[in-house]
């Protein structure tokens, strides 16, 4: 029994020492450019709200009419989308 107790005592001290050493760190303070890659990646995903030169202009009257058609469930039907034919390999 004494050898098992010695082993358990040493094992417990070893685990306790490892657990306490995990709390110790010698990390240097973070530099001023820390996180710059993340900020750059986030900024590259932001869409610029200003339209490009030559972009089509959205007319307010047409936009309002489109919103009203959408709200009233009167969306325009496309002629190509009205009839769909399936071609099978038989």
Layout: helices, strands, pairs:
Layout: H1 2-21, H2 36-44, H3 60-71, H4 79-82
How do you describe this structure in short?
By secondary structure, the protein is mainly α. It has helices at 2-21, 36-44, 60-71, 79-82.
Shape: elongated
Poorly predicted regions are none
Major sheet, described briefly? none
Name the structural class.
Answer: mainly alpha
Number of continuous helical runs: 4
End-to-end separation in angstroms reads 83 Å
- Specify Rg, calculated over alpha carbons: 34 Å
Mean pLDDT: 80
Helix content: 40-55%
Number of strands: 0
Order of helical and strand elements: HHHH
Roughly what fraction of the amino acids lie in strands? under 5%
Task: Write up this protein.
The protein is mainly alpha-helical and 90 residues long. 50% of the residues lie in helices and 0% in strands. It has helices spanning 2-21, 36-44, 60-71, 79-82. The mean pLDDT is 80.
How would you describe this structure in keywords?
mainly alpha; 4 helices; elongated
């Amino acid at each position: 029994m004494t050898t098992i107790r010695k082993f358990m005592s040493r094992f417990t001290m070893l685990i306790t020492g490892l657990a306490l050493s995990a709390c110790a760190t010698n990390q240097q303070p973070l530099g001023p450019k820390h996180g710059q890659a993340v900020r750059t990646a986030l900024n590259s995903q932001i869409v610029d709200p200003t339209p490009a030169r030559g972009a089509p202009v959205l007319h307010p009257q047409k936009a309002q009419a489109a919103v009203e058609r959408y709200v009233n469930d009167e969306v325009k039907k496309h002629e190509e989308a009205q009839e769909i034919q399936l071609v099978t390999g038989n």
